[in-house]
Specification:
Mean pLDDT: 81
Protein name: DNA-binding transcriptional regulator, XRE-family HTH domain
InterPro entries: Cro/C1-type_HTH, Lambda_DNA-bd_dom_sf
Strand content: 5-15%
Strand order of the largest sheet: 1-2
Number of strands: 4
Pfam families: HTH_3
Largest sheet: 2 strands, antiparallel
Number of domains: 2
CATH topology of the largest domain: 434 Repressor (Amino-terminal Domain)
Helix content: 55-70%
Organism: Flagellimonas zhangzhouensis
CATH class of the largest domain: Mainly Alpha
Keywords: Coiled coil, DNA-binding
Length: 134
């Protein structure tokens, strides 16, 4: 059985999903146990055999339905919604659960304690050396 729906170019969808996953043709080829040229041919094909599509979906870490129903519009909607959310900073979800000033004060206090311990250790060394000299 062949996978084909009107105006759907399965090969292009595979190519876009592969690119969005940051995967090269060579990597996909290795996963599938085929040549890079074979992957290129698949990506240029309007339809792909269902068994091959299942293998490709598994290698890409998606379902066959995700490939069949993939659309650039849905990806763009997800991306644009993510970047218009006020809790997103440079594309990273940013909802701190702590007060940064408290963390800074905490680090300062920890640094102060460390310095005091170091100073005490030096005083003990000096006292020990003075004892040895006498």
């Amino acid at each position: 059985m062949e996978t084909k729906t009107k105006n759907n170019h399965i090969g292009r969808k595979i190519s876009r999903i592969r690119e969005l996953r940051g995967m090269k043709q060579e990597t996909l080829a290795e996963e599938l146990g085929i040549s890079q040229q074979a992957v290129s041919n698949i990506e240029n094909s309007e339809k792909v055999d269902d068994l091959k599509l299942e293998e490709i979906a598994k290698a890409l870490g998606v379902t066959t339905d995700a490939i069949k129903n993939f659309s650039e519009e849905s990806v763009l909607n997800i991306i644009s919604n993510s970047f218009h959310d006020n809790s997103v900073l440079n594309g990273v979800l940013y909802n701190p659960t702590f007060n940064p000033i408290d963390k800074l004060v905490e680090a300062y206090e920890e640094n102060k304690k460390l310095y005091e311990r170091l100073l005490q250790a030096e005083k003990e060394k000096v006292a020990y050396l003075e004892k040895l000299v006498k």
